[in-house]
């Protein structure tokens, strides 16, 4: 790791100071009143005993907590479907289309009644080394079909049973959406020439969703699933010249090893050059209607989406915060044209089709602003290569660069505090910071060759999420205080030998305002990461800055996806890709079974509220 960049102490507000006396006083007068409002009150927010770092092949929760398995990759979603087989060649596409998908990621819970709820869960991708006996080295058309069926979204009916919330295989909401499920393209890019293909000459109906990373939910009861690394599924063996537009999104002749383009022509760039434009969107799903067509909402822009954090502004407009997870990419905000109607949910059906997309610019002095990506504004005109709004949305990254957005250290999830106008975004890591000319050290990205990541926080002017400006600070910087004491790579002062981690990714608030942090980082437990163990989930108090480790995951997993029941007594957590790349895991079933991504159910043995 190279020497620290110019980290300004004023821009980094350490623990204890976080939102305490010194913190927001350096920001705006508005923030000062916020600091007062958030001053620690009597009872501490975090009440559980921290768990130590772990390298064990199991999920470890605090004393007084219990953990059960809800569902794993390949488990049937319907009573007439075969179970997953540890003899891999037994598993088929036809079964997988009706089984829980692979690599569960973001998820949201939709209460139905006292005894019933719906859990919508993303199934991001596949690990061929765990899926096929040939480990992906000898792919066939049937294998590709199986892999495609393992992607997308699983909708699960949950029922409250004697032992707690469990999956109901006979539930009426159970559904699989995969890489071939028809979905409507909606919003400004619908019907654009770049979205037209041989199979869909109108550019209005796409097949499927894949690489569904994180998620969001709307107050009108729909699920938002976000398409991330869609580029890796496209490729060609033809001698095709790759455009700069494709290159900006990482689309090239070589795919990420999935081999879809070899057996399914729509993924061959030489056969369907517009197919990649139909991915990289946020997709809205009605989880209560298993026959409803999912809808790709193009007004939210096309990039490598992480989650979609939705909040209703004071004036009733819908604000959606969005991260684009790539080194040096950006943070976006969508503001709807129309307002949310709480008394007529049908009226909200197309709220995400009309509105304005913005991208964030962070200034060194702690201020920031949202730059409009509206056609005709900020030089986004035909003369400058942006023909119309659809063109801007399809090429959101290029438009963001054009208007001068700040390059970030891989924006992952965004979370809005439930009671205060404060927004948090994980910046997971960025080995290119300070190395690539386009990614200078500074602002909310203060460390060169940043292997640890940080969480940036901003407060919109006057507490209004539609405001043009905001004030920002760093809520925490991950690091390794054992190795790098006295330097920025130790992390912020709220990071200690007892809670250290790297690569914050999934974040979300519970109702009380605890900030839950999940990691997708280096789990080698060596070098820069010695002492940090497996990936984990932590809990932070946004008032005091305290960070406490809540759980540790099994070998080679990522912890991603979280959802609480309304009573806050049950927490669903995702364990993704245990045992990837041949690492020795047989999570969750043990006994040398195939390691399988799983959703776990966590509760307290005394039935209390999680985290207290
Ligand atoms: Fe799917 Fe950026 O994590
Ligand atoms: Ca992620
Ligand atoms: Ca991830």
From TrEMBL:
It comes from the Bacteria. PROSITE patterns: TAT. It holds the Pfam family PhoX. This is PhoX family phosphatase. It comes from Denitrificimonas halotolerans.
């Amino acid at each position: 790791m190279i020497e620290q960049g110019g980290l300004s102490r004023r821009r980094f507000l350490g623990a204890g100071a976080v939102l305490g006396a010194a913190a927001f006083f350096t920001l705006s007068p508005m923030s000062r009143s916020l600091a007062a409002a958030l001053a620690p009150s009597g009872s501490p927010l975090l009440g559980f005993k921290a768990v130590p770092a772990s390298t064990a092949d199991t999920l470890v929760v605090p004393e007084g907590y219990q953990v059960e398995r809800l569902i794993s990759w390949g488990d049937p979603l319907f009573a007439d479907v075969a179970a997953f087989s540890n003899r891999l060649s037994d598993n088929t596409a036809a079964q997988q289309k009706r089984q829980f998908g692979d690599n569960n990621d973001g998820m949201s819970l939709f209460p139905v009644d006292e005894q019933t709820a719906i859990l919508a869960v993303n199934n991001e991708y596949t690990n061929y080394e765990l899926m096929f006996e040939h480990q992906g080295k000898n792919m066939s058309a049937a294998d590709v079909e199986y892999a495609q069926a393992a992607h997308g979204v699983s909708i699960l009916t949950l029922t409250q049973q004697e032992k707690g919330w469990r999956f109901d295989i006979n539930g009426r909401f159970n559904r699989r959406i995969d890489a071939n499920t028809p979905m409507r393209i909606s919003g400004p890019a619908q019907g654009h020439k770049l979205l037209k293909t041989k199979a869909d000459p109108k550019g209005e109906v796409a097949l499927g969703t894949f690489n569904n990373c994180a998620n969001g939910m709307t107050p009108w009861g729909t699920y938002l699933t976000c398409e991330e690394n869609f580029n890796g599924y496209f490729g060609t063996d033809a001698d095709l010249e790759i455009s700069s537009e494709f290159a900006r999104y990482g689309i090239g002749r070589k795919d990420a090893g999935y081999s879809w383009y070899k057996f399914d022509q729509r993924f061959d760039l030489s056969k369907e050059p517009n197919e990649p434009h139909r991915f990289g969107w946020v997709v809205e799903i009605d989880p209560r209607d298993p026959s409803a067509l999912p809808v790709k909402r193009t007004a939210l822009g096309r990039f490598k989406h992480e989650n979609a954090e939705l909040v209703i502004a004071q004036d009733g407009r819908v604000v959606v915060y969005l991260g684009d997870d790539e080194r040096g990419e950006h943070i976006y905000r969508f503001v709807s044209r129309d307002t949310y109607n709480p008394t007529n949910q049908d009226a909200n059906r197309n709220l995400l089709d009309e509105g304005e997309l913005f991208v964030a610019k962070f200034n060194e002095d702690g201020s920031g602003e949202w730059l409009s990506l509206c056609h005709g504004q900020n030089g986004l005109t035909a003369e400058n290569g942006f023909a119309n709004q659809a063109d801007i949305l399809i090429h959101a990254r290029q438009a963001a660069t054009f208007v001068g957005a700040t390059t970030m250290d891989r924006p992952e999830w965004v979370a809005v505090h439930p009671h205060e106008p404060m927004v948090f975004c994980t910046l997971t890591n960025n080995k290119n910071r300070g190395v690539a000319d386009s990614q200078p050290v500074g602002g909310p990205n203060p460390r060169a060759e940043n292997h640890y990541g940080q969480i940036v926080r901003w407060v919109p002017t006057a507490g209004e999420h539609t405001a043009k400006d905001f004030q920002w600070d760093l809520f925490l910087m991950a690091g390794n205080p054992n190795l790098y004491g006295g330097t920025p790579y130790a992390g912020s002062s709220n990071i200690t030998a007892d809670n250290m981690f790297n690569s914050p990714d999934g974040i979300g608030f519970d109702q009380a305002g605890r900030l839950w942090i999940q990691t997708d980082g280096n789990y080698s437990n060596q070098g820069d990461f010695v002492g940090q163990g497996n990936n984990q989930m932590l809990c932070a108090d946004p008032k005091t800055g305290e960070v406490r480790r809540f759980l540790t995951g099994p070998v080679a997993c990522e912890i991603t996806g979280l959802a609480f029941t309304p009573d806050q007594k049950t927490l669903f957590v995702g364990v993704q890709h245990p045992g990837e790349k041949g690492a020795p895991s047989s999570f969750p079933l043990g006994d040398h079974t195939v390691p399988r991504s799983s959703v776990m159910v966590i509760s307290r043995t005394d039935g209390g509220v999680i985290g207290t």
